[in-house]
Amino acid sequence: MTKAKKAKTSLLLSLCLSFTMMLSACGGSGDAGPTKEPAASGGDNKETTETTTPPETGKDGSPLELAMQGKYKGTKVTMFGPFVDVDQKKFEESIKDFEEKTGIDIQYEGSKEFEATINVRVDGGNAPDIADFPQPGLLASIAKTGKVVDLTNILDQEKLKKNYNQSWLDMGTMDGKDGKIMAGIWNRSNVKSLVWYPKKQFDEAGYKVPETWDEMMALTEQIAKDGDPAWAIGIESGAATGWPGTDWIENIMLRTTSPENYDKWVKGELPFTSPEVKNAFEIMSKIWLNKDYVYGGTKSIVTTAFGDAPKPMFENPPKAWFNLTGNFITSFFPETAKVDQDYDWFYLPPIDEKYGKPVLVAGDIYAMFNDRPEVRAVMEFFTTGESIKTWVQSGGVIAPMNDASLDWYNSESDRRMAKLVQDATTLRFDGSDLMPGKVGAGSFWKGMTDYVSGTVNLDEALKQIQKGWDSK
Length: 472
Description:
Elements: H1 5-14, H2 45-48, H3 63-68, E1 76-81, H4 85-102, E2 105-110, H5 114-123, E3 130-133, H6 136-143, H7 157-163, H8 166-171, E4 173-176, E5 179-182, E6 185-191, E7 194-197, H9 199-204, H10 213-225, H11 243-256, H12 259-267, H13 275-288, H14 300-303, E8 323-324, E9 344-347, E10 358-368, H15 373-381, H16 389-394, H17 412-423, E11 426-429, H18 431-434, H19 437-453, H20 458-470
Parallel strand pairs: 1-2, 1-3, 10-11
Antiparallel strand pairs: 3-10, 4-5, 6-10, 7-8, 7-9
Helix pairs in contact: 11-13, 19-20
Keywords: Signal, Transport
InterPro entries: Bact_solute-bd_prot1 (IPR050490)
Family: Belongs to the bacterial solute-binding protein 1 family.
């Protein structure tokens, strides 16, 4: 939904919007401070976080199957996360059928201050049974403490491999206290490799959706010759100004270097001053720094709010044609605009064929802190498409599971998006959300802003961003 999800979510909420790329970028109850009561049946956190040997799945079935037989009726499972307001209602609707069939009461608590509060609860031995992390980097830091239950022997790994793109499983594997663990499973995602465009006018103009980066650049030049700037770009976002630009760099990195290098970059092992990262900035600059390609010219990029950037696409005739943002951006489109008719998206094309068709995503990863049979059943449920079916049907999210039917989506646009995620050569999470806050939500944002505003040149900007790692 957004870059440092907390900052972005606050911005979206302040505009009376509820989501999330949600990016990836992107959530009621009030403030959620530490609760006075321990997690239901959870006991002391030191005991409950120890992973026990899972029961064998015989004729009685897995924990989820046993739950469906009513074996855990009357039990409670506590859950804490960032979903509030409309998102909380959608989440609670998505688990309602499960609760009725199993008799398990999933007691969900949402908070706008989730990121700050979850650490307090975990450190205080009062962790919820399950927590929803919109930033996997935050989960990774907690996983190192040994307080997260390793799901490797909790969930059927073969089933997971069938139901998720391997990249999702890789992104859920993190460093534990004594080695690698499966720290969480993915339940909701949004897609950040999408270029939005005014479909009706685009078709009428005779333009064709580009399949390669070269074709996209040729079309960008053609649109300029026809009298319009192709791109609508805005990175203004209050205190979070600069985050939309990081989506561009992340997407280009995935298209110009290996997934392994992307991972090293996110971890700080591949510096911003490296040739790989500089190359990504240079490719982006061929669009951003060309005044004929950007609506309002280069200087407008810093002063245009990201939510306002797409507006020129909806004028008649359009004054701009392309906007690269996650699927949450449709919340900023005119209410009268109809998906698949007035607007659509195309996949940001590959640059180097050897890196296939990578997709940048954001989303929610669920971690388990207390190991009881009913909690295992709920976690297993969350690995199924059924757990997010009603939310998918209501629009605004993409299910990462393969068993989520494409028929559930209420628009051709969403169905194509879900298929894109399922078929992706490589999936990688929003990089700046994985970096330490001083980098991902600090020097990276500022460096992007200073560079495009002309305050510093590219080499200076990259050195400035890298300093965020040195001071973390």
